[in-house]
Amino acid sequence: MVDRGLLYREWKQNQVVILLSMVFLVLANPLSIVNTYLSYQGCLDRQDPQYCDFIVNYTSNLIDINWVPGVILAVCFLGMERSKGTMDFILSLPYNRSQIFQTKFWLGGFVIVLSQLIGFLLAWLLILVYQPEHVYYFKHSSVGVIVISFMAYSLVMAAGALTGNAFAQLLTAFAATVLPYLIVALPILNIEFIFGVNIWDYFLSDEDYFALVRKLYYLVPMGYVANDWLTDSKYILLIPVVMSILFYLIGYISFKKHPSERNGYFFLWNTLDRPVQILVIAFGILGFGLFGYSAGHSMIGYIFGMIIGAVVGFFVSYFAIYKKTKH
């Protein structure tokens, strides 16, 4: 499954990035508590103690950006390898594709999970030492951030298994985080602007509408960048767990089945080129049409915006998808 020789190769190739990621993920949680404690001490120096509270509140915390190292690791493990042309060398080694992907994936997953678990233990020890008055969402936030950062890593790894360079990997991953919103919201917004109606008024009350939006919000990976999930049900974290499994399977199957000789192109599987181009053009038409209507409040502005969107969508998709980048 995971090969020792490949692990050593990945370690030597990405040693600096792995170490920096580990240091950040280990220190982010305890440093946030140290920062809160120093702020409390500063308050005591400046004001009467009755106006100073030592409260550790994880609804606003440094570990909210713990998903960033996972994205960087995934780009280094796949996207940069393809961009530099070194992936061809790895594939020529006496290992099958399954071993290569599993080694890369689980090395990054191990770094992300273990580093944050160590950070969690250090933060827990600091809480015992400093003894703050209140600690809010410590366990829930720490566990949740591990899950969400692993989900982000899995998503970018899956994007890297589908694409032929680092830029395409990042763009595909970002598109996947907002795609459900674009598919639903853009057509509805266009209909509402053109006909001057609110579609949801025909089906839901205001309370039901906001409740539905809040539930759908967690079906979009981008929704977990903010920490609103902390104050909602703890079972919401099951969604990114399922997403992580899904992204892992997509990445594994794609890396195992798709060719590597299209390195440098946007997608390794050329069957995806045309459908994605059509989707980009459609989003361009709807998005620019909406902008044109908002600017001029007329059908002329809407049609003009759609034409611009079609042209922009075509050229952006053509040069991004069909032009091979040089190694």
UniProtKB/TrEMBL annotation:
Keywords: Membrane, Transmembrane, Transmembrane helix. Coiled coil: none annotated. It comes from the Bacteria. InterPro entries: ABC-5_transporter. The chain crosses the membrane at residues 16-38, 58-80, 105-130, 142-162, 174-200, 235-255, 276-293, 299-321. The keyword Membrane applies. PANTHER family: ABC TRANSPORTER PERMEASE YTRC-RELATED. This is ABC transporter permease YtrC.
